[in-house]
Amino acid sequence: MADLRTALVLGGGGWVGSALVLELLQRREELGLRCVVAADLPTAPCSAWLRSRTRAFIEEGVLVEAQLDVTDASAVRGIVERFPPTAVFNLAAAIDVRPEAPAVRLEEVNAQAPRNLAKAAAGAGAVTFIHVSTLDVSYAGRGHRNQAPQPPEDLQLTSPIAYVRSKARGERFIADFAQGLSSMNTIVLRPGHIYAPLEGTARCAGDALAGFLRLFPPLQIGCPSVQMSMVSVETVVEAALRAAQRASQCRGRCLALKDLDANFFRFYHNCILGRRMWPLRVPGILVLLGAGLCDGWYWLVRWLPWWLPLPACLRTRHAIQNFCVQGTGQALVDLTIDDTETLGCLGDYRRSGGFAHGPV
Length: 360
Prior knowledge:
- By secondary structure, the protein is of the alpha/beta class.
- The chain has helices at 15-26, 28-31, 47-53, 55-60, 73-82, 103-123, 162-178, 208-213, 233-245, 247-250, 264-272, 284-300, 312-315, 325-331, 340-346, and strands at 5-10, 33-40, 63-67, 87-90, 128-132, 144-147, 185-191, 193-195, 220-221, 228-232, 254-257, 260-262, 281-282, 335-337.
């Protein structure tokens, strides 16, 4: 297995990126690492969490923190020239499935930035490029069971949801760029719904969505037999490291990642929040209707005068902690993936981290 030497983690101050940086540092001898560069915006949500656990590595010069806006192509070129990477892990992403989400920003971060980064990395002599995508790129409003990635046919490049469209375009850009490129091994990882503990652990930060769901009673929404593929932060990290180590064998592949298939609501309330479900079920159509009304209101509010005295929560909603048709709809249909190819390429990569107690 190849030594990684210098690893560049884009989105290193994010939820999953910070966990990857920490794991790289803790396994640096096994991975043949000399330096890890964690690049992200100064406002990245988990930068302080990561810094509190890596001060010794920073003092030794093993970890370098770099401020970077991935949409700035010249800054991206600058960082790969300053720290020529052997392996690049791209976890930088703007996550926002609201229909009113800023489409231009999503396109810049999720579509254009990966292409610019891949070009810069190849030009700097990088051997391995790992791009973390999402299950959402194949979601067309209908469920599917045990579907393996089928790029480019399954990429929703014209989705009405800007987030889905931008992530799909980013994945397509990477695949197109990698064609005929012999100098760099490019691999796309497509995780299911990523989860973590509510409060976080020494290994990863807490799950913001779990905190949001804790505000509501533990009710079953929709059919309890519907399942979604779930994957822990630790499993995504392990898969990324294995893909980097086996890059020459996995090059050009798009690999699905999951720990288990479970009902979204039962999984979060039972396994993440430790709650017992109430013996009540809310029809999914009612929740979808409510989500549609929310979508309609926040579309309408954009056209209201700015001086109208509305509370801030009625002007805008949180990018992740919200009800919208896209997010709610995915939780109400079967949305499971087949990771047979991943197991063949990476071996037993699953690391549920003790957060999941099995299918629910």
